[in-house]
Amino acid sequence: MLTPVAMSIVINVFTEPRERARAMGLWGISQGISIALGPIIGGVLIDTLGWRSIFWINVPVGIIAIALVRVFVPESRAERPRRQDPVGQVAVLAALTGFTFAIIEYPHTGWLSGPTLTALVIGVSGLAAVVIYEPRRSQPLIELRFFRSLPFSGAFIVAIFAVGAYSGFMFLASLYLQGSRAMTPTDAALTLIPMALIMMISGPLAGRALGAYGPRAPLVIAGSALFAGALMFLDLRPSSSLPHVIATFVFFGVGASFTASPTTNAAASGMPNSQAGVAAGLASTARLMGNAIGVAVIGSVFNSGLGSASVQAGFTSAVRPGLWVIAGCGLVTIVLAIATNSASARATTNRVRYLFEEPNTRTTPRHGG
Questions:
Q1: 191/174 Cα distance (integer angstroms)
Q2: Residue range 336-349, pLDDT digits in tens
Q3: What is the pTM of this model?
Q4: Do 212 and 291 belong to one domain?
Q5: For a disulfide at 209, which of 52, 218, 313, 344, Cβ 3.0-4.6 Å?
């Protein structure tokens, strides 16, 4: 709930394009730092206070968040409050839960087992319900008309693939550091610090590139970094030098930090102000979906390759299929960044914008736009 709302606040507060791009860059820094610091702080907490402490720390974090929101965040209620959509919520929940459960379970039970097939049926049914039911509502939970905009659709898919690749990498990195190299949680956390630092540096750079060149350039950089990081990870062994390990992790840090703000900007740009926050929220939701699906897919692929071997003994061979999946996600990011941010692609956003304009404010779209 926090992530989509946070991005909607940024969109509503900063309306000037260049100012919004810089704000998104700063927001990207916070995203990058949090993603990188999570495992670092978690490793230290587990070694010092035990694993339960990683849950207790959310209590003070939540209290601080509530206090800061009450003091600093302006209210931005819609003129016409949206109605609840319980059917749409249940459908989305069924789709995500069904597909994620099936992906996680198939290495253990196979695609044709009862639990996996049941989960797939639930997932497909939920997705079908979204596609059929949501367009019939005047205020749908998911505005499917947004997907007629190629930049929005590209940003949505890129968010899933790029964040999924990074989340899958973090899963494999934890297994590599603690399973293959036999590091303690604290040592593994310290190894991730250079990646956290590079994400702090890359976040503002992504914002500047976004403001100067649009979303295409930073997303191409993000996809290229993810692809290069996956290829470098293929060469990692338990005996690999620490500089090699850190360099590999740094590439993934660049890929993650160059993804957040450009995908949100691409999703919201060109939308009317009344819909920009909703579009940005959906882009943030796509990143959360990528986070869950990435870990599920890469984890399942890794477990299938590992079989009955231990992580320390079988890591090198079991990790390869997952890394090729991550490399493929990087390539998809590059292709979509180029294909969905051209002049002709942006023209589709103009047509979508026209759908949401009030009748008395509409202007006839230009030819091709």
A1: 10
A2: 999 988 888 888 88
A3: 0.81
A4: yes
A5: 218
